[in-house]
Design brief:
This protein is of the alpha/beta class. It has helices at about 45-50, 65-75, 90-95, 105-120; strands at about 1-5, 25-30, 35, 55-60, 75-80, 100. It is globular and about 30 Å long.
Length: about 140
Amino acid sequence: MYAFALKTNKENSAMAPSFCKAKYFGFYDGENLEVKRNENTCGKGVMNWLFENKVTKLIVKDIGRNPYNLAKSKNFEFFYAGDERIELPQVLEKIKNGKFEAIGEDKINKILENHDSQNHSHGHNHTHGHKNNFVFL
């Protein structure tokens, strides 16, 4: 079963650029398409949901390390959707014709590095300035 992130639940929806923040996912078994609303907000939740839906192949534009590692641990196959906008009919056509690029180690490392650089957050506020800041009162 293939899965891919979608922006909407419409038949001409574009793939969503963000894997974990996608509002919908398409599930395609080679014959039947089902679009389901994604109620998860983190990579682990999305991956567990995909496991429950018997997914073994992911088509991605972007993915973070945690969901990637979870999927890899379950022997998922990864395919790259490309950098350009791609809509649902094109996704299905490419699956049927075997036109998606399988993602190798070099490509997945670039995707993960790009994801990390776009989503860098410590979860707290501070500056990365001088190491030794002193305040004298």
